[in-house]
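step 3/5: co-fold with 4'-deoxy-4'-aminopyridoxal-5'-phosphate
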Amino acid sequence: AETWQSVPLAPPDSIFKLTAAYKSDTFPQKVNLGVGAYRDDSNKPWVLPVVKKATNILLNDPALDHEYLPITGLPEFNSAAAKLILGKDSVALREQRVASSQTISGTGANHLGALFLSRFYTFNGPKQIYLSNPTWANHHAIFKNVGIEPVDYAYFDPKTVGLDFDGFISALKSAPERSPFLLHACAHNPTGVDPTEEQWEKIADVFLQKKHFAFFDCAYQGFASGDLDRDAWAVRYFEGRNVPMLVCQSFAKNAGLYGERVGALHFIGVDKAATERIKSQVSVLQRSEISNPPSHGARIMALIMNDEALFEQWKEDIRTMAHRIIDMRKKLHHVLTQELHTPGNWDHILRQIGMFSFTGLNAAQSAAMVEKAHIYMTGNGRISMTGINSKNLHYVAESLDKAVK
Ligand code: PMP
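step 4/5: write tokens
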């Protein structure tokens, strides 16, 4: 009876708690803007038509079995995933300097990458990683779990509701040489604020000067702009400049495969031999963690990425999702500025990229959205654009208008 007496009760995860509160609310016009998954214009989860097609092909394959995958996953998935993020012209791919492993979606990629760093990275001083302030809350937990201490770097400027570029650059410059920095490849979560290409170029300059390590997290490729190549720009640019790096990749958002847990971790090595050594050690770590990754989602994505017609259809489905979100940004901005004449500047709604938008609402205003309007959002003022649709757009805008007045 004494055994677990000292285990303290942990607080519930804030996003999952928000969803539970939304579900139990009986108010007819309630809106969930905390949701981290795509919803169509009828507020329903969307199974991508290309995923339905690929699933049918799989299920009708008489040779399909349920054997274990190799420890580092399905080879034809890994190679296609690497090409998707690094591009067909990648020098590292051509020189066989990419060690790829299939992971438990993006979270698993972050964990495996963090574990590898903890085991093998030559830290310059204490084991630390620099995380943008703010970042996806799970980043903090993932690095702490493997004994790496998260340190904030300046990223978001509440005054402009945009990037604190000077703060970011000075953090890069004042960190000890060879510090690992986590970078969101595109569609920064939670702010929706990304550096411009010119800013990425300057960021890469400092990475090279200071020999920093770029830990890229790419959870939204294609989902941000509607274009897989455009959203991979920063990752490919860093690879082209030979910044030491790895990339965590998720297919949760861009293929709507949230629960299938499809992801990959890609290390770029200095040469083929070093890359093989990395891959061998990733394999050892993966073996003790999960033995081998799940097959279903990886098979779906391997089919889609390796077949020209399916790949074209996937790109079309990605455009459907991204463009609905971009359209909602434009409409929300229009109603706020042209119809309601809501006080303040709302251009950041248009400028921000991807699933999330930082509205600039403070904690009290965000709480009022939940309590008075039944519009569920996090206390940091973040809204998920995918929760907005043609039916609730006006209600959301009017409620934002009231909250800031
Ligand atoms: N990184 C970031 C920045 C994210 O926003 C997410 C999803 N919320 C992930 C990684 C990982 O998600 P998943 O494990 O579902 O791929």
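step 5/5: annotate
Residues 173 and 206 are 7 Å apart (CA to CA).
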